[in-house]
């Protein structure tokens, strides 16, 4: 892959086709763990990690099991199965081998086993028919995009604590309004091109 | 075609299942089974009242023997009993605490100026120590209300009021209050002084319609020698107070709160 292609792919995954704000995948953690910057960071790291690992595993399942047998229509079920098992194994491995990392990722790791953003990236990769390296790279960058959006949103929500708004908007309503505005901002990136 | 799908998925499930069970054996980590039980017994509000980061780390400290089983103020005696049972230690009677806002001012306390800033007591404190004339009283912007993990605090006429039934005594609000107007008091104390002004009667009268003037009527009323005026403010000695409520009745400012009046006396547990 050329470096131009790499930059185009990063731009696409992080800004133009941002998982949360443009594709609307992974909204649950986006709203759930965005109250504080540090929890948002922990969640973001866990998502990057799981997305990258899951895309490698699902690529193998897709290429060596589903495609040869012509059962691509089972990909949703197969991917969920693989991702859930993978995350469980990785969690056990981390607890034994790298307890520090296990503690840091903590509760977030099992939380995202069946997250739609993780499943989404696997299905998008399979639909695009990308190669192994391409899939893994795209998944990693998508995870970075997710973390980026999550951190942006958490920073805004921390400031909202001290803003004055009508009582009826307290909590989730104001968060949803903010998320909508943020998504509209990201729409502005559509059509962005550096190497025409 | 269907065979392929069934076989492929079934096979995958089987292989992954074996892998998982093998991984559980290979990567087995010895954990104290009591930690889980302890965590289940705790309220799970992660209020931090025990001094640990959350219920999880408190449970770990309990299992390690570095924490006091009575540390969970939020759960009260019921939780302490369970914790003691799990840890196999003898129960020592726990004294339930509740938070008391020592101010009744609110709308009845004069303002120095009209405040139109951030709705937060700490922010208001930055401007001339708050917009209330009384330097001791509740600012009334509800920082404690927002901090309370159990929704036990509400604002009534511009002053914070604690719902003692909901309050678990976790003391989160006490740390959040910039005026230090909230203090922990025994839950079983029926009579409390809801003012913290140490100003003399004359100057206090000009800035607050309800604050304690230090008139000593309560001191003279009390037959148990339990209430005294210290620095122009009535203070109750909970060791001596029987909760008869005579002082609350006689107080000319009606700022001694007799909680019995609206709920009947609190009964000692256990």
Question: How does this structure look, described?
Answer:
The complex is a heterodimer of chains A (196) and B (270). By secondary structure, chain A is mostly helical. Chain A has one domain. Chain A is 74% helix and 0% strand. Chain A is built from nine helices and no strands. The longest helix of chain A is centred in the N-terminal third of the chain and has 33 residues. The mean pLDDT of chain A is 87. With 270 residues, chain B is of the alpha+beta class. Chain B folds into three domains: 55 residues, 3-methyladenine DNA Glycosylase II, Chain A, domain 3 (Orthogonal Bundle); 86 residues, Alpha-Beta Plaits, CATH 3.30.70; 77 residues, Alpha-Beta Plaits (2-Layer Sandwich), CATH 3.30.70.20. Chain B is 34% helix and 12% strand. Chain B has eleven helices and eight strands. In chain B, the strands form four sheets. A two-stranded antiparallel ribbon of chain B has the order 1-4. In chain B, strands 2-3 form a two-stranded antiparallel ribbon. In chain B, helix 2 crosses helix 3 and helix 2 runs antiparallel to helix 4. The chains are: A mainly alpha (196), B alpha+beta (270). Chains A and B meet through helix 3 and helix 4 of A and helix 1 of B.
Quick summary:
With 196 residues, chain A is mostly helical.
Count of alpha and pi helical runs of chain A: 9
**Total of helices of chain B:** 11
Count of domain modules of chain B: 3
Biggest interchain interface, per-side counts: A-B, 22 and 20 residues
Q: Globular, elongated, flat, extended or rod-shaped: what is the shape of chain B? A: elongated
Percent helix among the residues of chain B? 25-40%
Q: Radius of gyration of chain A over alpha carbons? A: 18 Å
Mean pLDDT of chain B: 84
Between the first and last Cα atoms of chain B, what is the distance in angstroms?
69 Å
What percentage of amino acids of chain B are in beta strands? 5-15%
- Tell me the quaternary state: heterodimer
Radius of gyration computed on alpha carbons of chain B: 26 Å
Helix vs. strand class of chain A: mainly alpha
């Amino acid at each position: 892959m050329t470096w131009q292609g790499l930059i185009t792919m990063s731009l696409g995954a992080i800004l133009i086709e941002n998982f949360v704000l443009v594709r609307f995948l992974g909204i649950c953690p986006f709203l759930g763990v965005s109250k504080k910057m540090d929890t948002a960071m922990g969640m973001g790291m866990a998502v990057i990690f799981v997305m990258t690992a899951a895309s490698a595993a699902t690529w193998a399942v897709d290429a060596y099991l589903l495609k040869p047998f012509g059962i691509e229509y089972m990909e949703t079920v197969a991917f969920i199965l693989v991702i859930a098992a993978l995350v469980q194994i990785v969690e056990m491995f981390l607890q034994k081998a790298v307890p520090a990392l296990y503690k840091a990722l903590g509760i977030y790791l099992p939380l995202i086993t069946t997250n739609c953003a993780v499943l989404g990236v696997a299905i998008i990769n399979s639909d695009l028919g990308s190669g192994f390296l391409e899939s893994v790279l795209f998944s990693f960058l998508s995870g970075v995009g997710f973390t980026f959006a999550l951190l942006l949103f958490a920073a805004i929500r921390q400031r909202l604590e001290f803003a004055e708004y009508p009582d009826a908007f307290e909590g989730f309503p104001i968060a949803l309004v903010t998320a909508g505005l943020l998504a509209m901002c990201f729409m502005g990136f559509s059509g962005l091109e550096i190497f025409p | 075609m269907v065979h392929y799908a069934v076989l492929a998925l079934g096979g995958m499930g089987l292989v992954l299942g074996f892998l998982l069970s093998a991984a559980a054996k290979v990567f087995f980590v010895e954990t104290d089974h009591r930690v889980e039980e302890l965590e289940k017994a705790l309220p799970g509000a992660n209020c931090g009242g025990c001094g640990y980061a959350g219920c999880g780390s408190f449970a770990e400290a309990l299992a390690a023997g570095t924490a006091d089983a009575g540390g969970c103020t939020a759960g009260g005696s019921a939780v302490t009993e369970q914790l003691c049972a799990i840890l196999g230690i003898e129960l020592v009677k726990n004294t339930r605490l509740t938070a008391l806002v020592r101010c009744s001012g609110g709308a009845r306390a004069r303002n120095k100026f009209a405040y139109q800033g951030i709705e937060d007591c700490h922010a208001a404190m930055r401007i001339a120590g708050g917009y209330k004339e009384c330097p001791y009283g509740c600012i009334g912007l509800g920082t404690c209300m927002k901090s309370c993990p159990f929704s036990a605090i509400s604002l009534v006429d511009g002053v914070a009021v604690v719902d003692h039934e909901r309050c678990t005594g976790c003391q989160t609000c006490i740390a959040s209050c910039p005026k230090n107007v909230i203090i922990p008091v025994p839950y079983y104390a029926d009579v409390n002084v809801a003012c913290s002004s140490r100003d003399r009667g004359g100057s206090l009268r000009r800035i607050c319609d309800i604050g304690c003037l230090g008139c000593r009527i309560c001191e003279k009323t009390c037959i148990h020698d339990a209430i005294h005026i210290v620095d122009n403010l009535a203070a109750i000695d909970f060791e001596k107070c029987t909760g008869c409520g005579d002082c609350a009745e006689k107080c000319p400012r009606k700022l001694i709160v007799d909680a019995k009046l609206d709920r009947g006396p609190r009964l000692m547990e256990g």
